[in-house]
Amino acid sequence: MIPSFSALSSALIGVCVALLAGCAAGPAHPPPSAELSEAAAASFKHQAGWQPMPSQPLASTAAWWQAFGDAELDRLMQAANADNLDVAQAAARDRQARALWRQAGAARRPQLGLSGSALRTESSSANGHNSYAVALEASWALDLWGRLAREQDASGAHVQATAADLAAARLSTQLNVAEQYWRLRVLDQQLALLARTLAAYERSLTLTRHQYDAGLAARADVIQAETQWQTLRTRVHDLQLQRVQHEHALAVLSGRAPVDLSLPAMATLLPAVPVAPVQLPSLLLTRRPDVVAAERRVAQANAQIGVAQAAWWPDITLGATGGGTGPRLGELFQAPWRYWSLGPTLAATLLDSGRRSAGVDLAEARYEETVAAYRQTVLTSLREVDDALATLQQLAAKAEQQARLVALAEENERVVTTRYRAGLVGFLEVVVAQNLTLESQRTALDVTAERLVASVRLIAALGGGWQGLGAENG
Questions:
Q1: Which residues contact residue 305 at a Cβ distance below 8 angstroms, ignoring those fewer than 6 apart?
Q2: Residues 103 and 152 reside in one and the same domain
Q3: One domain for residues 234 and 293
Q4: Do the domain assignments include residue 250?
Q5: Which spans of this chain does the record mark as coiled coil (predicted)?
């Protein structure tokens, strides 16, 4: 007995489904090795003596900046997270990647279409006639060789990479906000220091004028005192300009025009430098968004090798069509005008002059490029963490030395001023002592600023508050 066409089609579909479940092109994706030495994987170079602060687990919260305890910084961070345009662009790219992933998934499922036509034909040798047609068409690309599956894998890895890119954009913005804010706050401290110093210089100028009037000081002392006072007044304008520039930068980071943001001067004391928890380099590879994004791009490139390899095999599409065609609309679904068809379609390239082979080579070369880029990103991340650790260690020691220098300079200024009042020294020694005190105090503030910035950079180098792709997607 000869089997019917329906039975043959059912058998063909069953075989195709079985093959579809068992075939896949391309290599599997083992996570790429960072090729770190045993010492590099175990600890950072400048981690010795660096203890985490258990009361403030920065790595367990997205709002890591709250460890500084500054309400204004918190408001600026919230505005930047919501309105920063770099973050908005990264979020749009993330949505694009998710849409492409859905498109890749839809290509693996059956497609259904409807078409219709109405034609009027006229000729010189025959009377005109009408022709109507309607058809319902279904198709399913049988992914026997895994090409479509690999395309979806590549799109999925791209989605994860863009999600990590979005987290990296947020972290970069947060880092910039924190840096600009602390530099602005330190400028407020510098301006407050200059205001106090100007008052002290003005008192010295008044004293020198009185001594000059009494014949106890030379005219040169008065000129020198006034020159010192005027020079410091000029420096105030430089600091004010720097403050304006930092304020403008914060406005743009918050998604606003400079005219829409005005931060009042804050002369309150700067916060203590928080201690960020230092973790193993192996954990850094899963928490730092740019490293995760680089690894996901390796997975994407690996899947693209499978797509290129599957191009060697023929494409098989199972199609079904049903409809009607006839001279009148009312007869489209009546015999003999009805028709249907069902069957597979095979398409294969027999000669491409090396195009597919070149495609495989291209995909493999791109994979090797992404692996190298991943390893470079890992090394860069380790360098940034160690840079921040080394900077904090050196700045902590420098801050202690600078505090002693400030104390000595202030004591020297008090002694020299007393000797000047007693007429034992000239005003030049007072000028030197006052300038030494001012510069030592300004340097101390600069060191504090650099310590705050370095602590922010360490937190960012450790991944900020991002917990990885699971937290991002959850």
A1: 26, 27, 360, 363, 364, 367
A2: yes
A3: yes
A4: yes
A5: 382-412
Assessment of whether the complete model's pTM goes beyond 0.70: yes
Q: Is residue 289 part of a domain?
A: yes
Show the tokens assigned to 225. 């005192």
CATH code of 325's domain: 2.20.200.10
- Per-position pLDDT tens, the chain of length 474: 334 434 434 444 444 444 444 455 666 667 777 666 555 555 566 666 554 433 344 434 578 888 888 899 999 999 999 999 999 999 999 999 999 999 988 888 899 999 888 887 776 666 777 888 888 899 888 888 888 888 888 999 999 999 999 999 999 999 999 999 999 999 999 898 888 888 887 888 888 888 778 777 778 878 888 888 888 888 889 999 999 999 999 999 999 999 999 999 887 788 887 766 656 666 767 778 999 999 999 999 999 998 888 888 888 888 889 888 877 777 666 666 677 888 888 888 888 888 888 989 999 999 999 999 999 999 898 888 888 888 988 998 999 999 999 999 999 989 988 888 887 887 778 888 888 988 899 999 999 989 999 988 888 888 887 776 765 443
Q: Is the dihedral of CA 256, 257, 261, 267 positive or negative?
A: positive
> For residue 373, what are the domain limits?
23-108+145-313+354-473
Q: Is residue 133 part of a domain?
A: yes
